[in-house]
Amino acid sequence: MARESRSVEGGRFLDLPGLRMHVVEAGSGTPVVLVHGFPQSSREWARVMPLIEPHARAIAPDLRGAGRSEAPDSPYRLDTMCGDLVELLDALGIERAVVVGHDIGALGALALAMEHPERVSHLVVLSVPPMYVKLSPALLRSVRHLWFQYALAVPGLGERLLGGGEQRLPHWLFSTFAVHGGPTERDREAYVARLREPDRARAASRTYRQLVVPEFLRIVRGGYRDRLPTMPTLVLFGADDPVVPRSALEGLDRLAPSMRVDEVPGAGHWVVDEAPAEVARRILEFAELAPTA
């Protein structure tokens, strides 16, 4: 049984095996787990959770190394993230949940759905191509926007780029991939401030080295093409996201009868921040948790 304590900033801490995790919750009923992206935290969902709360139980954890969760000197692989999510569900007594992931968090959500499909009733993937996407010229063209991932994966260099000096790279990420503002200045500073902590900069660099880059190479080699989802799956992206062009997702919804692909007009990569009401509406409607408009 996980031990818990309260957070001075709201939420609570759960002492999971190998990780002290911070989690924010609101509402009751069907659990909806909201997994943030990089370099964000559970704070990413602050304007989405109040919209989900009247209809379901919203749960937003800080991933290992992010937000107020611990940043242990440990592996940061995909199976690590997936394991942390399983431990979270177990600690909260949740057998099955709607799981929503954005950016890197979407990779963890996808892994949970592939490795433990009995724990996921509905899967929502935001702002990344699913792992079973087919390699295409459009997808390869989008890779030019991801050069920074390889820099962040380099030991030593990644930590300096994230936490050193004026931290231009984290600020660049927020400004480059947004269309209508993205995270607020206050939120950006909160995210960037965490990266000034050496253990968190190390954790972020290790995440790119052990998770993002290896998983991208596995996707390119077709390592997940036989791992199609069995549960209803929604792939949702900002229509103006340079990382996920619509052309890269052509035909994806024909791979499995349970899959839908849709876009949010006028939004970029930070779709949760740019269109929180629309994202919340799509989640609730897809998971059949609220009446459709």
TrEMBL record:
GO cellular component, as recorded: membrane
Protein's organism: Agrococcus pavilionensis RW1
InterPro entries, per the entry: AB_hydrolase_1, AB_hydrolase_fold, AB_hydrolase_sf, Epox_hydrolase-like
PANTHER family in the cross-refs: HYDROLASE, PUTATIVE (AFU_ORTHOLOGUE AFUA_2G14860)-RELATED, MONOACYLGLYCEROL LIPASE
Protein name, UniProt field: AB hydrolase-1 domain-containing protein
Any one Gene Ontology BP term: acylglycerol catabolic process
All copies of domain AB hydrolase-1, residue ranges: 31-276
Pfam families linked: Abhydrolase_1 (PF00561)
Domain of life from the UniProt record: Bacteria
GO terms assigned for molecular function: monoacylglycerol lipase activity
